[in-house]
Amino acid sequence: MANFNTHFVVAATASAVLSGTLLSMEILEPTQAVMAFALGTFGGLMPDIDSDRSKSIGIGFTVVSLLVTILAVFVKNSTYSLLEMLIMAGVVFGTVRFGFIEIFRKISKHRGMFHSIPVAIIWGESTAILMHLFFGLNALVSWVYGIMIIWGYLVHLILDEVYSVDLGNRRVKKSWGTALKLFKVKTRTDQIQTILIYALVAFLWTKAPDPTMIKEALFSPEAWANFKDVLLPYDGRWFFH
Amino acid sequence: MYRSLHTVVIFTISLLLVGCVPAPAPKPSTSSTHSRPTMGTPIGQVNGYREYGYPPRDYRQRIKNYFANKLKRADHAKYTFSAPVRAYKRKGLAYGGDVAWRGWLVDVAIAVPSRTGRLQKPKPYMVLFKGDVIVEDILGSNHKLITRVGK
Q1: Are B60 and B30 a contacting pair, CB within 8 Å?
Q2: Do B142 and A234 touch (CB under 8 A)?
């Protein structure tokens, strides 16, 4: 299994490549590309928040707590006084960061369904919904942010699988296949968990922003033509523009 | 003599009266399909204008001017416009979710060339007007926070 630093560096590199490509294809503005890079990197750390002793759980819960606190402040800023907001922010942050983390540690199991492709999709859909409905961003940018989370998450899962192959001793470790999985049906609890996860994927899809723009921007013949336009110097002259 | 004078007076007065009839009111210089309310406009329609304002005048040119400074290679852009419709937009839920804008929305599809000069597929935009002023543009042809009310 790759350690925290490896996950961080690989996720950041993969996110930089994808956000840079989207910027070059003129799908994102420069500021949006920076945000996409940050979300992709964060997505690359998220799968390990189910590990009780990992750095990821601390970072993940701090970021989520800050996000929830900022949302609460946004919602109440027109009615609460500064002192009320300060107290509310402290209570919200403390509850999520130190209260929910204990509950989460108790119910989650490392390399459980948190390390799976449908959960990556759930995080991506949730991000797209949050950006669209809460912050009012357009459907394209909301979906790009969601896809960056999925991208970072999948890079983490793939890296875990790569590390489960011992190339020196030419053997496959016991952890092979536990990261990049679609479902887990070993026990009754696993089966229920898998069903609930897929039900949540379907439910969030109904609430997600319209995917037409993202399909057109990333998964269409037009997108491929745009990618080819920016892949190589269009006039054959390298570095002299 | 008296009879012919009478005829001349009536004829002259008739000519004067015809000359006093006001010329048809000039049509407002708008490319909108909607006209502003006049004396004959039904009261229900006038109430609609009170909430959403008047439809934007000359919206095609205003939109072109707006995007001229916003899009890359905008001078080669091709525009396709739809007629303005009444709409309103809510704030994001993070900002309270209240109605943030109420006015006229114009759907426009804009095709711009890529950096290699290839004309790309048109991208849809929703342009939000408050009166004749563009307040915002949103990429896409719909948004969960925007509701179209109709013409």
Answers
A1: no
A2: no
